[in-house]
Design brief:
265 residues, mainly alpha, 0% strand
Length: 265
């Protein structure tokens, strides 16, 4: 991986992580186009730079995360993240295998896009507008919805937002709760991946070049994610999800055609 490739993937991560269009799917496709998709460091890099994106959420919503004595808030996040921790540990190898498949990403991009096109019609009467109103049970259900995103291309953001709206949250709160839930979810996934690399293949981390790439990627992802989150919240309140749905359908169909014609492997 070159520095330019690292910056490109980090920009994609920052832009797409909190939009319902699948950051993993976009990074897989981008790395496939650049010919580095099957490289072990690339797979580690795509997960590790999530730390930068996580930090952007904590900074933007610092009033929610600090002070640390808001135990009701943190309890909901812990409850919501449990399904992902359990299923992620059980199906880690299967998930890693799916991460190598652009076709899986392409199909789920289309299916997820169709869901987003109609989501505003499905959930018209939200009743919950603040995170204090989200019960532990609702948080747990949203956490299960998030697990659908273990299939590459689904989008963690899209799955948890749909889950939030299904539980009666407004569009804005569903998106914000999705951001909050991203912090423990992505921190756990990143920590697990880095620990696994440290114990099994430490050379993927502890070389001068790779450490520079990881640092660069996290900084770029952090800065870009700050802008992406602000844009998404503003846009979502005015226009809803249809644009993101049509984007997913169009991109997914183009990718399927490219794969079937041999232009993308």
């Amino acid at each position: 991986m070159t520095y330019i490739e690292a910056v490109i993937i980090a920009i994609i991560e920052g832009v797409t992580e909190f939009l319902p269009i699948s950051s993993t799917g976009h990074m897989i496709i981008a790395s496939s186009f650049m010919g580095i998709a099957k490289d072990d460091f690339t797979k580690l890099f795509e997960v590790a730079i999530q730390l930068g994106a996580i930090c952007s959420v904590v900074i933007l919503f610092r009033g929610k995360f600090f002070p640390l004595n808001r135990w009701h808030f943190y309890l909901k996040l812990i409850i919501a993240v449990l399904p992902a921790l359990i299923l992620g540990a059980l199906f880690s190898d299967t998930i890693d295998h799916l991460l190598e498949s652009p076709m899986v990403v392409s199909i789920t991009m289309v299916l997820g896009g169709v869901a987003l096109i109609f989501i505003d019609s499905f959930f018209k009467n939200p009743t919950i507008s603040t995170d204090e109103q989200v019960t532990n049970k609702k948080a747990f259900v949203i956490g299960f919805w998030q697990c659908v995103a273990m299939i590459p291309g689904v989008s963690r953001s899209a799955a948890s937002i749909i889950g939030g709206m299904q539980q009666g949250l407004t569009r804005k709160l569903a998106a914000e709760f999705s951001f909050f839930l991203a912090v423990p979810t992505m921190a756990a996934a990143t920590g697990y991946k880095l620990l696994k690399a440290y114990t099994e293949t430490p050379e993927l981390i502890f070389t001068r070049n790779n450490m520079i790439l990881l640092g660069l990627g996290n900084v770029v992802a952090f800065l870009v994610a700050l802008l992406a989150i602000k844009f998404f919240i503003t846009y979502l309140q005015k226009y809803g999800f249809k644009l993101f749905g049509w984007y997913r359908v169009i991109v997914g169909m183009i990718l399927i055609i490219l794969i079937l014609t041999g232009h993308l492997k």
